[in-house]
Predict the 3D structure of the following.
Amino acid sequence: MKQGKVSNNVIRRLPRYLRKLDELTESGVGRISSFELGQQLGLTPSQIRQDFSNFGEFGQQGYGYNVEALRAQIAGILGMDRGFRAILIGVGNIGHALMDNFSFTEWGVELSAAFDVKESLIGSEFNGVPIYSEDSLEDYLNTHDIQIAVLAVPKTVALAVTEKLIRNGIEAIWNFTNIELTEPNSTTIVENVHFSDSLLALSYYVAERQDERGQKA
Amino acid sequence: MKQGKVSNNVIRRLPRYLRKLDELTESGVGRISSFELGQQLGLTPSQIRQDFSNFGEFGQQGYGYNVEALRAQIAGILGMDRGFRAILIGVGNIGHALMDNFSFTEWGVELSAAFDVKESLIGSEFNGVPIYSEDSLEDYLNTHDIQIAVLAVPKTVALAVTEKLIRNGIEAIWNFTNIELTEPNSTTIVENVHFSDSLLALSYYVAERQDERGQKA
């Protein structure tokens, strides 16, 4: 279905399309034009058509998109139907928050296990996910088919844990530590979660609003 | 300094430039060409020059950018020197994680206070930030100069708290609840933090890698 390498900017927009389509489904909308979809997402219709054209034919000229079908196509492109499995390393505040509030399955990912060094956590379960000792991490990786490691350990041990994960052939690291893991080698995919990027964008818009008010005054 | 409305995509790249420039400073790099900067960020030199051209003159043709000066300019554009103040509402897992690990001041924002409904938290302090009863939220907003509300409350109360914030004139909401707050009115800026966007991009790249392997096999 896919034609060559797709730009990172397009990939980053796909989850936004997905969320919007879910919203539309919830409000009972079954079909939407690229114009209307663009309006709701702050994109031009031509950008939307261009984005989708990276992945083949979507919708029918003049008829708009079938919301359900488009949603399924995007979910497929995003690998949500591949049955990816993840483990969580570090059950501190962020780790707990993810286990508690973040629905991995909603995004097609199964959270299989969590790992920590804290005796009081080891052997327990949280929302059905077992928490094991970090000592058993390598064994676990070698005996289970895991694609994604969610890294939520303290900064001080982030690099050591990362090395262990790579040594054991993990495919991808979803990195919640504040340490930027630049792709450590060509075979591990790293996604750094930077809260600051989001705060700074917000800050920009507040500053912009201040300037606008200043100009008006 | 700024010339007209700048596209959201450009704004989203600014924090990435900032992080890269901080990294360069740490490694003792004082000057960098747009070519080299582009290489390190996966952008073309012309895209970089175009991004910066939105905000006036940056660097000198043929000499590249002075890392420190460019960093200061971008920080200014992002409003990091405006002295914005934030409050946190909800000191659960995510709220705790933010208070514990996220350095607001590093990004030019002061976290002034936190609010919760839990008796055991009210009246305490965490990393120097006082935690007050949510009952006093409106009073606090009316007597302090606060621009940003960090929303980390349970889903069930997210909308009610948001209404309260808007009613009391908050400028911006940094939304960590899983509820998408579409800009509720024209005067409140909302930044939704969607962990799923990041996980799905990761998932895409794992799927892409699988497909490449499949083609090779």
